[in-house]
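**User:** Here is a favour to ask of a fellow structure person. Please take any protein you like and set down a full record of it. No explanation is needed for now; the record alone will do.

**Assistant:**
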Amino acid sequence: PEPYWDPMQFMIDECHKRGMEFHAWINPYRTKTTLKSELAPNHVYNIHPEWFVTYGDQLYFDPALPESRRHICMVVSDIVSRYDVDAIHMDDYFYPYPVKGKDFPDDASFARLGGGFGNKGDWRRNNVNMLIKKLHETIREIKPWVKFGVSPFGIYRNESSDPLGSKTKGLQNYDDLYADVLLWAREGWIDYNIPQIYWHIGHPAADYETLVKWWARHTENRPLFIGQSVMNTVQNADPKNPSMNQLPRKMALQRAYQTIGGSCQWPASAVIENVGKYRDALIAEYHKYPALPPVFDFMDNEAPAKVRRLKPVWTEDGYILFWTAPKYEEEMNRAVRYVVYRFGAKEAVDIDDPSHIVAITRDNFYKLPYEDGKTKYRYVVTALDRLHNESKSVGKKIKL
């Protein structure tokens, strides 16, 4: 852009200012969403058209080719190396969604590269498996704190295809998109999973409740979050309470399972526009306190050291609580932000209670809300590393 600015760098900075992670969401196989689109002259398609196939009205990298995998990993490697991303996140498009009456055009690739596979389905799944495994290894090698997640289509398999599948009648990740999501989680090739359960409770082919319960049972020991459709949630009534939309019931359902770590709202625009008062409900009820992102302890479970030299100081900008960053030896243990809690003078310090969080900040100071110097509080500060492991607390009694 003129004048030059970097949109992704801007988004990363704004997220980190707010204590949010930035997950770079990619859709690597798909090159054109319509054949009418024009590609830049230096696009890899114009250099290596033989790596690509046309299917329906779209252009794709051929997932069978080692060259495709190598190029996708190179792009991801570039993102992870040059930007302070917290995760790389792959969308639900693996092999493309089927076009009615048309098979994906990979006969030539199968003839050349399919040796050892009795059927094309297993071979296609293996092609995707190889990319997922290689992406995970690529990311880990460059920055071991960067996560790799996926948000697959909401149905893994129907019960009619596999007794372990869900009681649903829809498109299937495993059979139609060649995405064996459970294998990736089991093998540790993904760090979290956000299935897109975008239907409503009571949907005849893909009931939300059935699918949430199914995924909660099949996490394969990796963090699970539920992909929510804001519009479907607010436009459908709760079957047990027709005067309300489905948000309360969906939230109660997802929070009933220990294996579900939270949810992801789609699209963000609907939350911002407060469709069906969805945003109001999140603020008033479901996310009323600040929260620390979940710790992925299988990646790192070592907390940083405590903050040092915590003290309140009068400055020309007011009464300010200062502290010094803890010492560290390696990047994984470096404190990258701090949590400031406030308790009444006689209250027990409980940093598991988020209602006491007054700030999550990258600064090593916090401006105190001074009134008349007559009320005692205890302020407590902890340090967080890149994966949100929280240090032991350091406290100070202060009169405000």
Q: What stands out?
A: The chain has a mean pLDDT of 97.
